[in-house]
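Long-time lurker, finally posting.

We've been working with ABC transporter permease (Neptunicoccus cionae) and I want a structural starting point before designing mutants. I don't trust myself to interpret raw outputs, so I'm hoping someone here can both generate the structure tokens and explain anything notable. Sequence follows.
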Amino acid sequence: MTLRALFQPHRIVMMVLFAIFVIWCAMSLRWDWIPQYAPLALEGLWRTVWILVVTCILGFLLAIPLGLAQAIGPWYLAVPARVFCTVIRGTPLLLQIWLLYYGLGSLFPQIPWIRGSDLWPYLRQAWPYAVLALTLSYAGYEGEVMRGAFSSVNKGQLEAANSFGMPRFTMFRRIWLPQAIRNVLPTLGGETILQLKATPLVATITVVEIYAVSSRVRSDMLIVYEPLLLLALFYLIIAGIITLLFRKFENSVPTR
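Top reply, 14 upvotes:
Generated this for you. Predicted structure of ABC transporter permease:
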């Protein structure tokens, strides 16, 4: 964005109003609680970020075969993939989190070999179920996106690669998948921001992320607006970073 575009009248008015709001918040609201809760807030912020990164990466890796199965797969692969995406997209994420946590979480303690395994110290905690739920949710939405992305790739390029004897996996890795990802990069950026805004739901199963920290401040200090405003600022900063990263990635990907 150029300086001329930045200093247009409506943007100047927005910046002035924002500056006035920031000054009012700094002078009128109560911020003395921040030093006490700063370590917990940093821990919650870190947990929010790593949950977001891990679930988006794992979810996207799962979305690729889901989209491919729906685009070209035989019916016995396409139908389960379509059913999975439909169920995930058609049910609330909060319900999915609760089903996994209160369902699997209450079932595993009744299985002796699981209680005696090395995985039990992790399975008794809440965060694995939160990661699993968010991963499946991201995969369900992105699986449908990747289905459209695979279908939109120019078939002439695939036919040309096939006529030259290029192995199918090589053709998928070098032509089909990169072009499909390039076509959906703006959508992936938006879905990643939506995933960020879904992370507060894991606080309902006792995962202490940044939203849970703000809730604790409200309950301990009886302060309502200040932690919520700071929480909104954190989310805006993270969303802005995600937008910039995806925009940079889009600009670095060749158009042909």
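Before you design anything, note these points.
Residues 104 and 110 are 10 Å apart (CA to CA).
The chain has 13 helices and no strands.
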